Amino acid sequence: MGLRFNPADEGGSNGSVNVQGRFVLYRDLDGKSYEVELPLSSNVDPYRLREELGIPCYVDLKYYPLRSAVVTLWAAINADRLHELYPQAFEKQISKKPIPVLLFGGAAVKFHCRSANSGGPLDRVIKDTDYIIPKKLGFEFYRLLLEMDKALGTQYKSFATANDRRFNAWRHGERYRVTTISGITGDGIPTITVLDIFCDRIELRHKVEVTEEFKRYKENTYTIGLEYLILSKAQFIFDAPKEVAEELKQHDQDYRILTYPYYNKDMVILGMEEKDIKDICAIFLDHDIGEGPEAINPEKMRRILERDKRLTLTVTLNLKNLVDRAEMLGRWLPKGDVAKIADRIERLLSAFPNVDKKWDRPWWNTGVETPQIF
Fold first, then answer.
1. Beta 175-184 vs 158-159: how paired, if at all?
2. Which long-range contacts (CB under 8 A, 24 or more apart) does 214-221 make?
């Protein structure tokens, strides 16, 4: 694994290699600077790692977030032997066993869906990658991220700012946060973002437990799996004053208004953003309803949702909204593909448990940040 890999050789976004010298990634409140030497380096070949991991070749490694994800997944799966492969970088064993890190969010959709990758009709820009790990291995993965650049190259540098460390202390091992390189501009300058690492569950508008998927990390292509991907996307919901409806229409976003007649008449309920709708559509376009690792299993979805009526209602409303407003999907897809997606969603919805309880106020977690609508 001592190969030095230049993404520019593969048409990547590494850009000009003429940019040289120390570059300040971040200057903390206490004056401490986090720096990196330019040009950024990579000591591994992500294309070879993609093949070794069995990740589909349509996953576009010219796109930095996906390239970084492949390298990170490989490092986590090999966490128990990195000290043997790179003794100059790792004095001690990071973990006694492989760390089964799973992707969720847009990167996970790209791992499963050809249509969501470069050249596909549902391709979109993702700003970062989202990881979830077993809580008992959380600190080991956090430590791996902070040390990975020493062995694998400065492209994969992460660090913990004062705010990151404060966040981690508050969460007591439930979640971790680091600041990491998120991309490389055309002239070779790195950009950074804050990376949130979830443990055991995705807890946003609803709680989505994914612990059963850690043992199937290879089968699920190092993601939480299709069913949990759908749930994690379709759990997005919040409300707003009724007056917002007209403004949504002016911004061509009224398709996000969910139909639920029992809710407070002075409010409207808003569902998924466009990016999540595109991801959901990619999943249903590229995968049929049925059994198997690359099929959406209705029985599994029903079993998961039977535990949580509130989550069931939110997911049902979001998916039904896509069927009811299927014409909106025509902005990206031909009629045949729209019809296929709508049919598959309806077949899945028919397996969902019924929700008899009627809510006139939020049934979701309101203790999370509400995004700007426009």
1. antiparallel
2. 214/100, 214/102, 214/134, 215/100, 217/77, 217/100, 217/101, 217/102, 218/54, 219/293, 220/102, 220/293, 221/54, 221/55, 221/56, 221/111, 221/112, 221/293
Q: How far apart are CA 288 and CA 70, in angstroms?
A: 26
Name the burial class of residue 33, with classes exposed (0-12), middle (13-18) and buried (19+) by CB atoms within 10 angstroms of its CB: exposed
pLDDT in tens, 318-344: 999 999 999 999 999 999 999 999 999
Chain segment 41-73, per-residue pLDDT in tens: 999 999 999 999 999 999 999 999 999 999 999
Q: How many other β-carbons are positioned within 10 Å of the β-carbon of residue 310?
A: 19
The identity of residue 212, as a single letter, is: E
Q: What is the 3-state secondary structure (H, E, C) of 164-187?
A: HHHHHHHHCCCEEEEEEEEEECCC
